[in-house]
Structure formats: structure tokens, C-alpha cells
Amino acid sequence: MRDIEKIIRVNGLVGHEASGWKAKAEFRKANRNWLQRSAAISLKILSELQAKEITQAELARRMGITPQQITKFVKGQENLTLETISKIETALGVDLITVLGSQNKDEKGSHILIDNANISEMIEVVMDDIADNNIVRPLFNSNYSTESTLKYYE
Question: 67-96 pLDDT, tens per residue?
Fold first, then answer.
């Protein structure tokens, strides 16, 4: 193939429109905080869907929205409103976010505000599990709310 033919062929493959990569990168940088929180919420939604064996289509039906909208939510790039988060929480029967300083609850699956006494008690439980050769690993989880949250799973 001659050089001119190669150039024509490459030009045919190359798009003539700007890709917008720079604008997208600037957007991600400027919106990093809420995008990270949105991604964390999305992962929690996906985790709950899997744990409860609920499809995205079923979640959409429960919320009265389209499955395409759920797809946007679980991509972690949608700026979810408190109203939408609340509807997702109701449809899944879970808490996705917790406002610190809200009323403490202690029933299973509810949020517990951890103070120093709770942390000491948790450390004791972990140390007992380690002594008993149980495998314990800390995971970040919304079931315990504080600036650093831990829930222990065997």
C-alpha cells in the first residue's frame, strides 16, 4: 500500500469531532467529592440488590421509575437527590446514608452512633475472636455511623 493510501485510510478512521476528554476530566476533578459519594451509594445499592436477589428492573418497578434511570443510579455518576435516595432506601428496606447526630437506634440493621465505650467494647469482641482463632476482618459499613465506621464480620 502506498503512503498516500495509508494516510487516506487513517483519516477515514479518525473522528473529526473533539472527544471532550479534557472537559470530562475537569468535570470529574471539580465534582470529585459528590462523585465519590455517589459511587459509594451505587455500590451499596448493587450490594443490596445482589444480597436480596432483586433485579434492577424490580427496583425500578418498586420505585415507579424506568429501569434506565436505575442504570444511571448504579453507574455512580448521577447526582442523587435526598428524595431519590429516600425512595431507594424504602424500596430496598435499607439505609444508604445517615446523618450524624440523629436519634440512635439499637435494633438489628439500624445505625448506632459509636462512642468511646462502644469502640472499647468492639475492640474487646475482636480480641476475643482473634484469641478464639476466628477470622475477623473490618469492613466499612453503613450499619455503624461515626467519622470512621466499622462493622465486623466473621
Answer: 999 999 999 878 899 999 999 999 999 999
As a whole number of angstroms, the longest Cα–Cα distance in the chain is: 78
Q: Which domains does the chain have, with CATH numbers?
A: 3-92 (1.10.260.40), 112-153 (no CATH)
Question: pLDDT class for 154, splitting at 50, 70, 90?
Answer: very low
| Closest by Cα among 114, 113, 104, 93 to 44 | 93
C-alpha 134/C-alpha 143 separation (Å) is: 22
In 30-153, DSSP assigns E strands to 112-113, 137-139, 144-145, 151-153
| HSE-CB of 140 using CA atoms within 13 angstroms | 9
- Give the C-alpha separation, 137 to 52, whole Å: 23
